[in-house]
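A.,

Following up on our hallway conversation. Structure tokens first:
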């Protein structure tokens, strides 16, 4: 029984033979295998791009409508952060996904699309910018909500939308400046296995290269820790305030609904960020400290399916795929965890529970009647 060749790949599922030289017989076989996988694998980046664009566009539309509503004046800074996050993710999708699709259509040969190598540097730059920006914006959201809940008087008097806009602009400018450091010779962007994407090189023996890569991973992990710590502090404050205002008037109950929606959105974004970025950042630090690079994945053969090298390369690719999913999942967390959908979910849950309770009551009444008849 013959087995179909497996397509294993880069950020969106490309085939490992993309960086192998094409010899006479072996090269044609590899090319044929790549063509057999290409018709399927190209659907992955295309689907991810469409899903990300639709989700981020819808999130920006809903944020703009909520921002104009009078009842959301206290949440305008939070809505600005949500809108900035969606805009950043949308820009990342529009700049990186077409390049990946073009490489797929070129039989996953990067040189065919980028013979000069300048596109590789741009792709690595985009990966760095649109990797760090969402992490720092999520941290800004977490800090903003913590101040709003735990220090409401200071927040009301000092926290204005102008300050939020300044902080977001500062995040973008700082990340852009950091991502431009390889142009000044501090670090470099290289083509990564299996040849469909470019990112920061982790195998540089020079101090400047390892410093740039370790700084990227360190900043990412630091922003994750800030987000988790602030969100946990916010959740603890929300739970305690909701308990004290349980028997409060209608306005306080409305505040409780808004607080619950915010809490669930923060939890969702925190979980998505941690699950998507923590594996890649930790793997990068591990590679930097061990002075290894996944550029050596180019050399492993198809016969070494059970080797440690093969497992490490596949784990790295899984971590990269998870990180690339962040741009897609972020807006859908906001879209799906909104008050309207939460109310519909609660209504459906209540309806199901009432139906089950009524059915149980009917069964118990019928059973009691049967017992009475039997006893008579």
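Then the amino acids I'd put at each of the 376 positions:
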């Amino acid at each position: 029984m013959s087995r179909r060749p497996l397509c294993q790949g880069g950020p969106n599922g490309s085939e490992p033979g993309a960086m192998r030289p094409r010899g006479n017989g072996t090269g044609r076989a590899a090319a044929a295998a790549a063509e057999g996988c290409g018709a399927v694998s190209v659907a992955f980046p295309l689907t991810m791009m469409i899903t990300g664009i639709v989700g981020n566009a819808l999130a920006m539309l809903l944020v703009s409508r909520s921002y104009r509503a009078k009842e959301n004046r206290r949440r305008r800074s939070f809505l600005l952060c949500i809108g900035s996050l969606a805009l950043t993710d949308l820009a990342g999708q529009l700049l990186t996904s077409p390049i990946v699709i073009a490489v797929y259509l070129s039989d996953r040969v990067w040189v065919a699309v980028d013979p000069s190598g300048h596109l590789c540097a741009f792709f690595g730059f985009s990966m760095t910018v649109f990797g760090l920006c969402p992490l720092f914006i999520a941290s800004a959201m977490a800090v903003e909500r913590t101040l709003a809940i735990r220090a409401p008087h200071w927040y009301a008097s000092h926290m204005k939308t102008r300050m939020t806009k300044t902080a977001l602009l500062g995040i973008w400018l700082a990340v852009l400046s950091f991502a431009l450091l390889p142009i000044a010779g501090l670090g470099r962007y290289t083509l990564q296995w299996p040849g469909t994407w470019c990112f920061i090189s982790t195998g540089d023996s020079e101090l400047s290269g390892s410093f740039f890569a370790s700084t990227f991973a360190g900043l990412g992990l630091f922003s994750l820790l800030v987000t988790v710590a602030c969100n946990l502090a916010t959740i603890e404050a929300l739970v305690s305030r909701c308990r004290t205002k349980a028997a409060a008037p209608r306005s306080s109950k409305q505040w409780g609904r808004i607080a619950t929606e915010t809490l669930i959105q923060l939890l969702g974004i925190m979980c998505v960020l941690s699950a998507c970025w923590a594996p890649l950042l930790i793997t990068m630090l591990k590679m930097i400290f061990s002075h290894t690079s996944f550029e050596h994945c180019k050399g492993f053969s198809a016969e070494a399916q059970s080797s440690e090298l093969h497992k490490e390369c596949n784990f790295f690719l899984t971590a990269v795929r998870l990180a690339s999913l962040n741009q897609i999942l972020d807006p859908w967390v906001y879209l799906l965890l909104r008050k309207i959908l939460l109310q519909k979910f609660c209504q459906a849950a209540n309806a199901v529970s009432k139906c089950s309770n009524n059915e149980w009551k009917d069964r118990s009444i019928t059973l009691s009647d049967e017992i009475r008849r039997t006893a008579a």
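The two ends are 70 Å apart (CA to CA). Curious whether your intuition agrees with the design.

B.
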